[in-house]
């Protein structure tokens, strides 16, 4: 690994690997390939984690395999708690949970002008990312999204990771609605959301 970090043009090599990481199909649990003189392995783990392993020509020894399996088992065993100590903490600009719910409920209500309520409810449920933290959000028959956690949680700032999960939920919802409503994404940008709401919900 030390030799790899000293390779000339390391930034371009890292950028190339990053582009490959971003295009891994969702159905692949592990991807192995060679990049310059190195063996690259990418492992997909719970909570959308990707482990990148860079090895030289010496290959993968048993000690590494055992160590990696121990790490993987620990991650899978602890994925239910969301790795709270490792999550990026809220920043000064982090929105509260109430901010996010209010904006998403506004989007849900806006969409009733174009889709039936049953369809909206189905799309909201189907678009919600998996994970214990996301399961706290309930979608009612009226398309209202509410938090099943403590009332005081609504005023707490979300972490960077939690904010990204919420944005992923919105992105999937918009994608589904776009299949049924022509120019739905354009409507979102032009009339559905305020600038503040777009900053909250959109990438």
Provide tags for this entry.
about 200 residues, alpha+beta, disordered N terminus
Notes on the protein architecture:
The protein has 203 residues and is of the alpha+beta class. The protein is 48% helix and 13% strand. It contains 8 helices and 5 strands, in the order H-H-E-E-E-H-H-H-E-E-H-H-H. The strands form 2 sheets. A 3-stranded antiparallel sheet has the order 1-2-3, with helices on both faces. A two-stranded antiparallel ribbon has the order 4-5. A hairpin with a 2-residue loop joins strand 1 and strand 2. The protein is elongated and about 60 Å long. The N terminus is likely disordered.
Topology:
Blueprint: H1 2-5, H2 10-22, E1 30-35, E2 38-45, E3 49-55, H3 62-78, H4 97-111, H5 117-127, E4 137-139, E5 145-147, H6 160-180, H7 184-192, H8 195-201
Antiparallel strand pairs: 1-2, 2-3, 4-5
Helix pairs in contact: 4-8, 5-6
Q: Quote the average pLDDT.
A: 77
Strand content: 5-15%
| Backbone shape | elongated
Sequence stretches where pLDDT stays below 50 over 5 or more residues: 1-5, 80-87
Give, in order, the helices and strands: HHEEEHHHEEHHH
Portion of residues within helices: 40-55%
Termini separation = 34 Å
Cα radius of gyration in angstroms:
21 Å
Spatial strand sequence of the major β-sheet: 1-2-3
Q: Given the helix and strand composition, which structural class is it?
A: alpha+beta
Domain count: the total is: 2
Number of strands: 5
Number of helices: 8
Profile the largest sheet.
3 strands, antiparallel
Brief summary:
By secondary structure, this protein is α+β, with helices and mostly antiparallel strands. It has helices spanning 2-5, 10-22, 62-78, 97-111, 117-127, 160-180, 184-192, 195-201; strands at 30-35, 38-45, 49-55, 137-139, 145-147.
């Amino acid at each position: 690994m030390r030799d790899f970090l000293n390779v000339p043009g390391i930034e371009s090599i890292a950028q190339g690997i990053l582009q490959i990481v971003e295009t891994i199909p969702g159905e692949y649990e592990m991807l192995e390939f060679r990049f310059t003189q190195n063996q690259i392995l990418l492992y997909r783990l719970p909570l959308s984690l990707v482990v990148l392993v860079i090895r030289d020509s010496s290959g993968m020894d048993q000690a590494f395999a055992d160590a990696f399996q121990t790490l993987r088992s620990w991650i899978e065993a602890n994925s239910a708690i969301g790795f709270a100590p490792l999550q990026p903490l809220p920043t000064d600009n982090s929105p509260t949970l109430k901010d996010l719910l209010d904006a998403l409920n506004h989007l849900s209500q806006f969409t009733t002008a174009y889709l039936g309520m049953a369809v909206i409810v189905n799309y909201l449920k189907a678009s919600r990312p998996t994970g214990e933290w996301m399961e706290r959000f309930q979608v009612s028959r009226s398309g209202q999204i509410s938090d099943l956690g403590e009332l005081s949680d609504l005023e707490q700032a979300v972490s960077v990771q939690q904010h990204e999960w919420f944005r992923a939920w919105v992105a999937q919802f918009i994608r589904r609605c776009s299949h049924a409503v022509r120019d739905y994404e354009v409507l979102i940008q032009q009339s559905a959301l305020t600038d503040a709401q777009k900053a909250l919900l959109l990438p």
